[in-house]
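Extended Data, panel c. Modelled sequence:
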Amino acid sequence: MASTQYQGTGTTTGGAGSRYWRKRSAYLGVVPFFIFTGIFLIYPTYSVITGAFRNEAGEFDTAKIDELLASPIVRKAFYNSLEISFKTAVLGAILGIICMGFSFRKTWWPFLQDYCCHFISVGAVWWRYAHLRIFGNFWF
């Protein structure tokens, strides 16, 4: 072990960690990330959520949400979204288990091991896209 300690690094006697990490200027690198996140993620989300629960007078009201959920088109869209999500998750889990078996067992068709390892790394989402492009809506 080296006994040399450079200034601003290492442990201190008065607190936890080094003086370098306790400086506020060390965190300036994440400020652009927080600004970007605030402008393009947090503010629009806040605006949509608060706007959905306010009426024209600016008061809290659930009439817009009730009207939206009463629409059969919107309910069908929610149902379709949940159905696609569930089927994709189940199919991905099944194919993942199969590919996991091929990737660990070299006695089963060794030529499939590389393909299954690649498939695992790419994921079931791209497989679903390729399946839709090749076969259409068959099986779903």
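The chain has two domains: 18-70, 72-140. This feature is highlighted in the accompanying rendering.
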